[in-house]
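Reply to dn_fold:

You asked what the input looked like. This is it:
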Amino acid sequence: MKTRVQLLSTLFAASTAAFLFVVPVLAEEVEKEAAKREVPRAIITQDGEVDDMNSLVHMLLYANEIDIQGIILTSSEWHWAGDPTPEKTFDQCMALYLGPDSLKEPVRWPGDEWMYEFIDDYAEVYPNLMKHDANYPTPEYLKSVTKVGNIGYVGDTEEDTEGSNLIKEALLDEDERPLYLTAWGGTNTVARALMTIEEEYKDTEEWDAVREKIVNKAIISAFAQQDQTYMEYIAESWPEIKFIDISGESGYGYFWKNVAFGETREVFGPKWMKENLDVGHGALLDDYVTWGDGTPIPGEGDNSQFGTNTRKLGGTDNLSGTKVYQYEFISEGDSPSFFILMDSGLRNLEDTVLYR
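and this is what came back:
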């Protein structure tokens, strides 16, 4: 029979072993939770212009650094799908200085298939990306959060969409991390999500708590204001929501030649772009468009087919107003909206004031 001392020794040894077993497990869970808190989460809304497409390709290559919780197609003052509904408000038509029927037909509309094709191409390179970092999201997950938002016309907020519902659910969830809502096109799908939340909760006892949660969580990161919905609704009804205008980062936009010099200009030039990015670098980068590289852009007219309209090469008849050359960088005007989410090690994620 074991003595009391022997029993205590046995129990101590067993508990120590259990403790040593549990500590790594707990440490691993704590580490996972810490990593989850530190990785910024974002929902991307975009209108499918070529610079948005290029920005999406770029962002997918850094999807291990950002918790991408949505990729949503929306409209803007430059792109919309068209809405046959005959009645549109005077303000909606005047936003574009167009007549009452101007919003019925599509304008420079890329459709939505290209988004899913990009994710399919991401799937092709996914095994190689995983060799570098196991945190890359699966293609299946990315496709599950790729949605169509409000696309009918500029400033369309008429009804709930899959895209606006995804934003609404993220705003209302229990994840305490900031939710970055990037607007590469208009803010109308974000606005529709906020409208729905207001309609559902404003006259309830939960409204104050719900509102406080959202204004503390949401951060809109936008390239200027590409429709009227921020000024007419979000800024009026949700003025506390942080709004970061990244349009000052013109070095990645169509006018990059006005601000890029030295090594940066060389990297954006045709030789570097062709050799290191545009040609022969896998399915996903095959979706990237440079001047005259032969890539067609869905929905664009001839004048905006920067990849295939070779008449543009060597001339200044383009958005930049400067001479352009084959394989030269076109634009990633919206990329700064996710650049600010990349942890620089300088505590840049702690306060959005550092972005301004």
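The chain is about 40% helix and 10% strand.
Hope that clears it up.
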